[in-house]
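PROTEIN DESIGN WORKSHEET
SECTION A - STRUCTURE
LENGTH: 116
TOKENS:
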């Protein structure tokens, strides 16, 4: 079956340290997108560092492996741990986000379109 993902794009300049380059169409558990007023998950910003995916360490993993862990069944929920980057309301602090996989994964290298 098809795999689904979240809408996170990582900075290709830091291949073993997943740092958010873009967060687009992220969806919380209640089916709200990040730019909607009802969105209830933590807001993820450019520069946030991904630490864990469902309890698995994301630091030191190649970005392809990070994206593999982020993919899964349509509408399944994934539990992420971040450290807030300089643009974040959580700058320098750890924060958690539960997000729903709802975007069909395509192989046009989601993780390669950053900072080229």
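SECTION B - SEQUENCE
RESIDUE ASSIGNMENT:
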């Amino acid at each position: 079956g098809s795999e689904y993902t979240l809408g996170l794009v990582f900075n290709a300049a830091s291949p073993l340290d997943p740092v958010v380059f873009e967060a687009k169409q992220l969806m919380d558990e209640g089916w709200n997108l990040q730019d909607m007023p009802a969105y209830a998950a933590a807001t993820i910003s450019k520069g946030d560092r991904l630490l864990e995916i469902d309890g698995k360490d994301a630091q030191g993993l190649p970005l392809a492996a990070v994206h593999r862990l982020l993919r899964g069944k349509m509408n399944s929920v994934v539990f992420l741990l971040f450290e807030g980057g300089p643009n974040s309301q959580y700058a320098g602090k750890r924060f958690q986000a539960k997000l729903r996989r709802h975007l069909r994964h395509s192989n046009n290298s989601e993780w390669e379109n950053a900072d080229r």
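SECTION C - NOTES
The CA atoms of residues 77 and 100 lie 4 Å apart.
The radius of gyration is 13 Å.
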